[in-house]
Design brief:
This protein folds into 2 domains: about 35-125, Serine Threonine Protein Phosphatase 5, Tetratricopeptide repeat (Alpha Horseshoe); about 130-229, Serine Threonine Protein Phosphatase 5, Tetratricopeptide repeat (Alpha Horseshoe), CATH 1.25.40.20. The longest helix has 21 residues, at about 1-20. Helix content is about 55%, strand content about 0%. The chain has about 230 residues and is mainly α. It is built from 13 helices and no strands.
């Protein structure tokens, strides 16, 4: 009799623990989801993000990639969720395992609304990605004209050199397509004071790269800034 009672008590205790785990406010959405706040953030589910934060879900928790909920929201360009997280105090400079922060990723991908939110909430303009580059460099490479202007206006250094030996100007030339967007970015960078004669680690200048690639319009823009061949 005592043995049966003991087993019954053990089962009752186990059931109580499972109820606490699976029916807690944080676990209700999906009891198998280890990162419910990340999931809600990625899905731009503002109601769920707010509920989880109210239930004391850690705002700086890390998932398997080292991302915080804000980084997860940023990578999904989930603007509303990102806004809720930032307003709740999320760190815009917290980096994941591959050195992406909300600020750096938003800049690199041209997620302009999130970028502006990070800039207004303490973004570290000197922070760098896994290639040693500022947010401006990949923004220039990918042709995000308005993002480039926004970052320059915020005060990001235009002549920062990454670990590959490239500046934003060099990347805009050698990794761009030579089209209208990259032409405009080259002009914006030069107008902001980018050094047109700053060569890569092989001694090749932006002008020389443009000439080799046949980007005549970019070549002409560079020549107007009195570059040397």
């Amino acid at each position: 009799m005592a043995g049966n009672l003991g087993r019954f008590c053990n089962k009752l205790a186990t059931a109580a623990i499972l109820a606490l785990v699976f029916f807690s406010p944080i676990a209700l959405a999906n009891p198998m989801d280890q990162y419910p706040l990340h999931t809600a953030a990625k899905q731009n589910n503002v109601t769920e993000v707010e509920r989880l934060l109210s239930a004391s879900s850690p705002i700086e928790s890390r998932n398997q990639t080292g991302a915080t909920p804000l980084v997860a929201a940023t990578k999904a360009n989930a603007i509303d969720a990102a806004r809720v997280l930032i307003n709740a105090g999320a760190d815009v400079n917290a980096k994941d395992n591959i050195q992406d922060s909300a600020y750096l990723y938003a800049g690199a991908r041209g997620h302009l609304e999130i970028l502006k939110m990070t800039l207004a909430n303490g973004a570290d303009l000197k922070s760098t990605n896994r290639f040693g580059g500022t947010a401006l460099i990949p923004a220039a490479e990918r042709g995000h004209v308005e993002t480039v202007q926004t970052l320059i206006d915020a005060g990001v250094a235009v002549d920062h050199v990454n670990r590959l030996g490239w500046t934003a100007l060099i990347e805009a030339v050698i990794l761009g397509d030579g089209g209208k967007r990259h032409q405009e970015i080259v002009a914006i960078l030069l107008k902001a004071g980018a050094n047109p004669n700053l060569a890569d680690r092989n001694g090749v200048t932006p002008l020389q790269h443009a000439q080799k690639l046949g980007f005549k319009e970019i070549e002409d823009i560079l020549l107007t800034y009195k570059t040397t061949k």
